[in-house]
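Continuing from the previous page of notes. For each protein in this section, the sequence appears first, followed by its C-alpha cells. Read the first protein now.
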Amino acid sequence: MLKDSKRLKHHRKSYYPFSKEYPGRSHSTYAIGETRERRKREQRSNVFYALALVFLFLLTFFLVYLAVFLSNRPIREENHTPLPSTEHLVALEMPKEALNGGIALELFLEDLQNENANAVMIEYKAPSGFLSYTSMDSTAADIGASTRAYPTFMDSIETLKAKGYKIIAKYACFEDTLAASSLPGAAITLADGVSLWLDESAQKDGKPWLNPYADVAVNYLLGLIKEAPTFGADYVLLDGVQFPVGRFAETAVFPYADVKGISKNAALQEFLQKVKDALGDLEFSVTLTVSDILYGNAVAYDGTLLSAPCNFITIDFQKTAEVEAVLKANNAGFAELSQAEYFVPAAAAVEAKLETDAKDKTVVVLTNRENTTQNIQDAGFAHSISVS
C-alpha cells in the first residue's frame, strides 16, 4: 500500500472560468496570490460604501421633508416695502367671505381692479378675539382663538400677493372678548378686583375688555401682532388701542395701575413702543377718529396718541353717532352734513391739526366708499382705505 501511494503523482489543480477559485472571480473567496492586506482593504471599502448609502438615504429623506415643510409654511418676507410716500396707497377692505376663496374672492379681485386699488385691508383679529388665521401662538391655542380661522386664509393671501397687492393686517387690541374672559389676570374688573367689567349691561350683551396695564394682556397681544409678517402682512393696523369709553367707563377698575405707577396715556404709549420693537422694520399704524385727532379723549387715551411711536396714523373719517356727538358739541356744522359732505370740512380741520401737532406722521384715511379716492386726494391725503 505504501509503495502504491508513493507511485501516486501529484496533479496540479486546474482552474476553469466557471470555477469559484478561478483568478479574477470576486466572491467571498479570493484569487490566487491575494494577500490578507487586500482582504482588509476590501472589507473597509464595503463598510464605507454601506455608510455612504445610509448617508445618501438620510440626506434624501431630509431634503424631501424640507421641501414638504416649506411648501406648507406660511409666508415670511424679510424685506417689507415702506408705506409709499410718493405714490398713493389705495386699499379696500376685504369681505370676510372672500377669505373662503371661490367666487367671493374672484368678485373681490374684480372690485380691486375696478377701483384701481393696490392694497387690501384684512381683519386678522376681530374685537370678539377670534383670529382669521391659525395662529402659532401657544396662548392663542389654549383659549381657542383660532377655532374660527378660515381654512383657505393663506391661499387667499398668496393669491392677492401674487397679483401685486399689499396686505394691511388689522388687529383689534384691547377690545377682545375672548381673551378678557379666558386669560386670568388679563381683564378690566369691577371694584372688587375679581368680577369682569362689561362695556354694557349683561342684558344688552356687554363685553369685557383687556386691561392695558396687565402684562399678561400686553404680552398676549404682542405674541399675535408679531406673527403678522409670517402670515403675509406688509403693514399692520392696530384698532382699539385705548381704554374703554361709554356710560359704564366710570365703574372700570384697572388692576396693576398702582403697581405700574404710570398714566393711561403712558401705558398705551409703552404698549405701542413694544409693538414697534416686536415688528422691527415692518411699518404699523394706530387708528384714531376725527374727534380723537381734533380734541383728544381723556377717557380713552388720557389725552391723545398723536405722538405715538407708530410709523403712520390711520384716521377713521366714518361718521358715527359717537363722532357726531363730539363734533356737534364743538362745531354743530359737522353733524348736519352727509357722509360725503362731512368729509370736506372734517378733512380740512384734521389737516390743520396735524400740521401743528404731528407734521412727521404719514396719514391714511379710513372712510366709507361714498368718498371717492379722488375726493380724498383732493383733500390733501395720499393714502386711503375704503370700507363697505
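Done with the first. The second protein uses the same format. Note its length before scrolling.
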Amino acid sequence: MKKLKYLILLIILFSLLGCRRVNIASHTHLAVSKSYDELEHYDVCSCGEIFNRESHSFQGEMCSCGYDKYESNFYYDEDNKIVGIKESVAELHIPKSHNGNEVVEIKANCFGNLKSLTTLYLSSSIKKINDDAFIGCENLDSVFYYGNVSDWCNIEFTNIYANPMMCGTSFYFWDNDRFSLLDELNIPSDITKIENTFCGFSNITKATISDSLEEIGENSFYNCISLTNIEFGKNIINIGKNAFYNCRKLKEISFGDNVNNIGEFAFYGCTSLQKLTFDKNIKNIFNFAFAECNSIKDIYYNGSINDWLLISFEVEANPIRYASSFYYLENENYVKLVDLIISDDITKIGNYQFYGYQGLKTVLMKNVLEIGNDAFNNCINLTVVDTTTKLKVIGDRAFMKCISLKAFELSNNIVSLGNRVLYGTSSLEKLIVPSGFSIGVLFDGNVPASLNEVIYK
C-alpha cells in the first residue's frame, strides 16, 4: 500500500512538471516565444530551454528578428524612451526599436555636452525630442535622418536645443533610397504647423511654404544663416517668436494675405533685409520683431493709411523705423507716404505707429484725441505738425528727436502729457502752449537753444 502511494505521487509530479521530465531527449521543443540578445536571436520552449540559436543578420540597422544593432548602446526608461548613452562616441546611431518596441522619444538633456559627437544617425521612429537633448554638442557636423521632410516636420521639438541641428552643420534626409543634403526646402502639403523644426539649418538657401501651413512657430528657422529666399503660403496666420532670428541673408519678404501676428524677435538681426510687403490683415507686431534690420529701404503695404493705424506695434517692432520709403494703397495704386493726412474718422494714433520713418515731412490731424508713445519719435525729416485743438493725450517721446521740426502747438485740452514729448527737437524755433504752462516738461529740462519764440494762449 505504501509503494502504491509513492507511485501515485510520482505520477502526479511528472504531470505537473510537464515536459520537464527525466528523459529530456524524448521531448520535442516547441517555440512559444522568440527573443534575442546582443549577439544572436533564438526560440524559447515552454520548458524554458533555448534552441535554434542564430547570429544576427542585419539589413541596414535591423535584423529580421527585430533587434536593432545599436539599441544596446543606450539607457531607457520603462516606456522605452532613451534617457542616456552608455559611453561617449563620435558616431551616434539612434535605434528604431528596443526590446521589440518602437523607440519614439528622447528625454531631456539626453546627450547634453557630448563633445565627442561628430555624426548623428536618427531613426524615423522618433516622434518627440525633449528640452536640451543636444545642447553643447559643439562638434556635431552631420545629421542623417532616416525619414523624409514630412516625417521631420512631425517631430515635436520641445525647445531649440532639442533639435540637433542647432549644433550640426549639414542635414541629410532619406530620399529615394539614399541620403540627400537638404538645401532647398519645400514644406509638404500635409503640414499645418512647425516649431523649432529647422533652427540651425545652415545649408538651407530657399524655403517654400505650402498653403496648408497656418503657423510658423517659434524658432522655426532660427539662425538659418544661408537662407536667402522665403516664399510664404497664402494661409499662414501666425509667425512665432524668433521664427527667422538672424537669417542674415534674407533680402525680401512678401507676407501672405492672412498673416495676423508677427512674434517677438521674429526677424531680429536680418541685416540684409531690404524690402517688405505686408497685407492689410496684419494686426499685431510684437517686441523687437524687426530690430537690427537696418538695411530695410522699402515697405509696401496693401492697405490704406487708416488700415495701417489699426496695427498694434510693440517696442522696436515697426520696421518703418529703418525705411526711407513707405508705400500704401490708394485707388489701387501704391503711393509713397510723405505728407500724412489723418482722416476725420481717426481719433487715435497708436504707439510706435510711424516711429523713425525717414520719409515723413508733414503731419495734419483734425480729430485726433490721442497720440501714443513714440508715435513719431525720431522722424528726422518731419518739419510740420499741425495738431488739433481736440488733442487730449500725448504719450511718452511722441515727437522726440524730430530734429527738423520747426514749430509745435500744444492744445488747451491736454489732460495727459507723457515724458520727453519734444526732447531732442534741436531745430525747434516756435512753441505755442496754454497759458501758465511750464515748457521744460516737454524737453525733460533740456530746452533747445534754437527755441526763440514761446507764445502762451
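What the second structure shows: Helices lie at 2-17, 149-153, 305-308. The two ends are 134 Å apart (CA to CA). We return to this in next week's lecture.
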